[in-house]
Amino acid sequence: MADTLSFTQLYIDGWAVDGGSEPLEVEDPATEEVFTTVPTASPAQVDAAIEAARRAFDRGQWSRQPVSERVSTLARMARVLAARRAELIETVIRETGATQLVAQWAQVDMSLDQARQLPELFATLPEWEHNEVPLAESFDPAGRDVVMSIRRYEPCGVVAAITPYNFPLQTGVWKVFSALAAGCSVILRPSPLTPLTALALGAAAQEAGLPPGVLNVVVEAGSAGAELLTSDRRVDCVSFTGSTEVGRRIAAQAAPTVKRLLLELGGKSVQLYLPDALGPGAIEAGVATVFGSQAGQGCALQTRMLVPRDRLDECVERAGAMARSLRVGNPRDPETAVGPVISAAQRGRVERLVAAGVEAGGTLVAGGERPAHLPVGYYVAPTVVRVEDNRNPLAQHEVFGPVVTIQGYDDLDQAVEITNDSEYGLAAGVYTADLKLGLSLSDRIRTGTVQINRGAASAYTPMGGVKQSGIGRERGVAGFREYQELKHVVLAGAR
Predict the structure, then answer these.
(1) Phi, psi of 227 (to 5 degrees)
(2) Which domains does the chain have, with CATH numbers?
């Protein structure tokens, strides 16, 4: 078994520096044991990181470097991370509670692929484009000089990247590699629950030879540093992934300095099954996907199942049976399908929401308790609740745990109405053999992503939400544009 990564210093202005505040204990959610400590930044060190990023950007050693050179440096950084794959996998298992399969495939390998692919994709983008000016307007009124109207894409400046605990390496890669490719300077502040992979990004940047101040990594136990990052005038953009509640606070903190915002927030996504998609294994796969994906701790997971009402009883039975069949326990056991949630506080929140959903009229089909054979670790049994009313708290609130609701619909108009009856709008899934009908339904669903029969999440595909699920997009071309300013340049002959 590989060792976990261990860090004794932070990364500020090109240096590995000692923390200025008390060390932070990192807990394994599967064992409730503290397995390492990491340094934390004092308020003065967060301020120094901001100043270093500002100075680096304004001096232009990175921001005005040719794209080919930036991409080459980021490719070295990606290779450094890839060389630490085994340690990253072990680290992710211990700090997030991910199962072996999820840690390897979704947490680390996808991140390593995207660290390589994002710079490659950026290198293909034009640095400028012609505006769509009519040919007749491409000359001055006298007809002597050609007028050239273009749009240039320039780095937006200093980016504060604040990442969550559930997929810390993936979200760190999305933000850091996209912003750096665009020419920005970055201060990365991870969740205090999962700081190790963020420090791994800082170490990789230092080894790859990024100029001083271009990537700074600061860890803290509280939120004072994050609040400085979201309010300081020297920061141009805040890129945050996390809950809608915190996202609202960040938007308010950023408003006085009118910062650019990229907010990827909560979700309450639907998996909508049409009658022709209820064959053997379909419902079962939908349930297993939610529970097996970081114990349901994913903002885009499809945790609301909608099925035709005349098949509801059958689907409820199948969903409950599948939930009860999944092995919960040690993340390193290859037979384990569901690991722990991140903390005692999160487990308590899940339990309270399930209780509220049952009190509001939901029927507990499976789970709803702590597994009796796991007295240690922050485990919740895979839980299925049948709801009759979309106003049920479990149908409206993001749970962020291994909980699925299942609900019937009478016709497709009602199914779409239920799908859209949410403050969230991050993702949705439509399952049908009729692709034309599925595409038609996707037009009516108000979410940032609609998956018809399957998803496609990679460096090349955008992710983000509408309504209370956020602002802007991560990944892909759209993700790069979040870290760029569009400048209109007009060029004509001298008078």
Answers:
(1) -65, -35
(2) 10-265+469-489 (3.40.605.10), 270-458 (3.40.309.10)
